[in-house]
Amino acid sequence: MKFGNFSNLAGNYAATRPGYSLDFLVSVFPKDVSSQVTFADVGAGTGIFSRQIRDYGVKTIFAVEPNLEIRNQGIRHSENNNIIWIDGSAENTNLKNASVDILSMASSFHWANTVQALKEFSRVVKPGGKFIALWNPRKISKSGLEHEVNLILKELLPEYVRKSSGYSPFCEKLSETLSRSNFFTDVQYSENESRRTISSNDYIKLWQSVNDIQVALGELKFLKFIEKVRNLINGEATVTVSNVTRSWVATLKD
């Protein structure tokens, strides 16, 4: 397995990844005009955010995803719902010039070439349009299951800095990165917490859908990590997971 390659993780990814808090969307467009918006979700994965945008009321959605296995999972989970799937990437979306009002990357912008992607987005977003980058990291408190899992990761990967976490150095510098770009301006940041209760088996599958941890640990250490997580759960049927949706919204420069 390589960093950023989710081909073997598609099933667990589609089955267990949480949705995003959409509270921030009221600052992007009013719901009463959402049906008039053309939306592109780039690096759409299995379509989690694309389907949420559809349910929010947006009628025209392009889901752009380069990985065939992941894209097929998205198509399978998004039948008959007006989501148009496209084989493309952040650097080459295969979308037409000035064709979308809003373009997003949900939990995927860190994998892109930042400059090339922003240049591509500026090409396909309409004048005055928006770019949204968002992540949905776990909320790690000072106690509880998530805190203990994080301690296990620090024990097994003491020097590792996660690339794909919503609390990565990439995210912490994102407001500055977007503001200093030649393409977008007026960056607005927000965060909103959400909670859900899932089965313990799904919690294990959730970790088995995480690419960077598996690559960094290697196969044997990752199995050890999963065993330690199972021991933490200690036979409980369900676990409660908290996530924080972190979103950055930027406006295309004139």
The count of strands amounts to 7
Could you state the CATH homologous superfamily of the domain at 7-138 and 165-194 and 244-252? Vaccinia Virus protein VP39
End-to-end separation: 42 Å
Return the structural class: alpha/beta
Approximate helicity band: 25-40%
**Overall CATH class of the domain at 7-138 and 165-194 and 244-252:** Alpha Beta
Q: Report the sheet-strand fraction.
A: 15-25%
Order of helices and strands: HEHEHEEHEHHHEHHHE
Q: Regarding quaternary structure, how should these chains be classified?
A: single chain
Q: What order do the strands of the largest sheet run in, or round the barrel if closed?
A: 3-2-1-4-5-7-6
Largest sheet: 7 strands, mixed
**Which radius of gyration do the C-alpha atoms yield?**
18 Å
User: Can you count the helices?
Assistant: 10
Textual characterization of the structure:
- This protein has a domain at 7-138 and 165-194 and 244-252: Vaccinia Virus protein VP39 (Rossmann fold), CATH 3.40.50.
- The chain has 254 residues and is of the alpha/beta class.
- Strand 2 (60-64), helix 3 (68-77) and strand 3 (83-86) form a beta-alpha-beta unit.
- The chain has helices at 10-16, 48-56, 68-77, 114-124, 145-156, 169-172, 174-180, 200-208, 211-217, 219-233; strands spanning 38-42, 60-64, 83-86, 100-106, 125-135, 184-199, 238-252.
- The protein is built from ten helices and seven strands.
- The longest helix is centred in the C-terminal third of the chain and has 15 residues, at 219-233.
- The N and C termini lie far apart (42 Å).
- Strands 3-2-1-4-5-7-6 form a seven-stranded mixed sheet.
